[in-house]
């Protein structure tokens, strides 16, 4: 499609839809619309109420670039640089897993047990979406986010400033630490809550994931080893050393991992272990109390 000064918002939106559906993108209309809103600084209302608005040459240039990238299966969130999660907008890029709506179930479950002033550890923090939402929606809680990837932690740091403000960072209410699981943590530092959404996809399943995920999201945030349970075992093995008596451990899990993760936690002595379902009715969270 060539640019002309009479080109309207609706016309270029329809072109965007056709381009994306030609290569089999899933949510063609939503993606075409969101990218157009991103390029033009508009909102949902514009397509409905002001579809005859014309497009500037710059908007045209940006939109055609965005559509070209999306056609290559670059995730929408990598193009716009943001993803909404728990009513907050998180910065994302190719170094972190894009926050998923399913993970809100985990955050909400933790919040049911969260009290003012608690100390929280988020193991494999990625973008920081779990820890930062918990801190944003509580009072005087403090947190540590651990990730093995320095690139991911840079994103988490940007999000911490954006979501909590620089003052919180200066007061060290949130600390982001690079490390391999518990290896570099001080075991004098005890937590009320340990939460984790670790990589949990079985290695042999990775190849069948959609290209948006397989080719553009970090493999280290996805791959849970041969049986998908590698990180649950490692975290369950050591979490007790870092939990206060009466503290709780929370995991996000894959839909078919509830039974096994529950068993691993029970074998390690966790009490009142529960498997909680997501909005689709699938097992999504396992949690339990630290034995004292
Ligand atoms: N904790 C982050 C999230 O939920 C990252 C998870 C991961 O990398 N597996 O988005």
Could you walk me through the main structural features you see in this protein, from its secondary elements to its overall organization?
With 292 residues, the chain is an alpha/beta fold. It is built from 12 helices and 9 strands. The protein has helices spanning 9-22, 28-40, 44-49, 57-71, 76-80, 102-113, 129-136, 150-164, 166-170, 211-214, 230-242, 258-267; strands at 82-85, 88-91, 119-123, 142-147, 174-178, 191-196, 243-252, 271-277, 283-289. The strands form 2 sheets. The protein has a 7-stranded mixed beta sheet with strand order 5-4-3-6-7-9-8, with helices on both faces. A two-stranded antiparallel sheet has the order 1-2. It is elongated. Glutamine binds at residues 97, 99, 103, 124-127, 129-130, 197-199, 221. Residues 97, 99, 103, 124-127, 129-130, 197-199, 221 line the site of glutamine.
Write a brief caption for the model:
With 292 residues, the chain is an alpha/beta fold.
The value of Rg in angstroms is: 21 Å
The percent range for strand residues is 15-25%
Which structural class matches the secondary elements? alpha/beta
Distance between the termini: 67 Å
Which ions, cofactors or small ligands are bound in this entry? glutamine
Could you spell the SSE succession in H and E letters? Answer: HHHHHEEHEHEHHEEHHEHEE
Choose one word for the global shape. Answer: elongated
Sheet with most strands: strand arrangement: 5-4-3-6-7-9-8
Binned, the helix content reads 40-55%
Q: Would you identify the regions where 5 or more consecutive residues have pLDDT less than 50?
A: none
* Biggest sheet details: 7 strands, mixed
Number of strands: 9
Oligomerization status of the protein chains: single chain
In round numbers, the mean pLDDT is 96
The number of helical elements comes to 12
């Amino acid at each position: 499609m060539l640019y002309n000064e009479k080109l309207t918002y609706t016309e270029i939106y329809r072109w965007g839809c056709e381009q994306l559906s030609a290569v089999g993108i899933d949510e063609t209309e939503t993606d075409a619309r969101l990218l157009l809103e991103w390029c033009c600084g508009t909102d949902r209302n514009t397509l409905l109420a002001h579809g005859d608005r014309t497009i500037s040459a710059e908007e045209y240039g940006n939109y055609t670039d965005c559509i070209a990238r999306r056609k290559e299966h670059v995730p929408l969130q990598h193009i716009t640089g943001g993803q909404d999660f728990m009513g907050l907008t998180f910065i994302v890029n190719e170094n972190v897993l894009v926050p998923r709506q399913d993970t809100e179930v985990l955050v909400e479950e933790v919040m049911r047990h969260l009290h003012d002033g608690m100390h929280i550890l988020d193991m494999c923090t990625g973008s920081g979406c779990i820890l930062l939402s918990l801190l944003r929606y509580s009072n005087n809680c403090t947190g540590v986010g651990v990730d093995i990837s320095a690139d991911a932690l840079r994103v988490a740091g940007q999000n911490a400033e954006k979501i909590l403000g620089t003052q919180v960072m200066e007061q060290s209410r949130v600390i982001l630490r690079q490390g391999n699981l518990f290896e570099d943590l001080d075991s004098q530092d005890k937590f009320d809550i340990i939460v984790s959404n670790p990589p949990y996809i079985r290695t042999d399943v990775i190849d069948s994931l959609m290209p948006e995920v397989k080719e553009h999201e970090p493999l280290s945030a996805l791959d849970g080893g041969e049986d998908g349970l590698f990180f649950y075992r490692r975290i369950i093995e050591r979490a007790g050393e870092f939990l206060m008596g009466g503290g709780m451990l929370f995991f996000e899990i894959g839909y078919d991992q509830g039974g096994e993760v529950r068993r691993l936690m029970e074998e390690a002595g966790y009490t009142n272990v529960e498997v909680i379902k997501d909005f689709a009715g699938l097992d999504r969270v396992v949690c339990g109390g630290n034995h004292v």
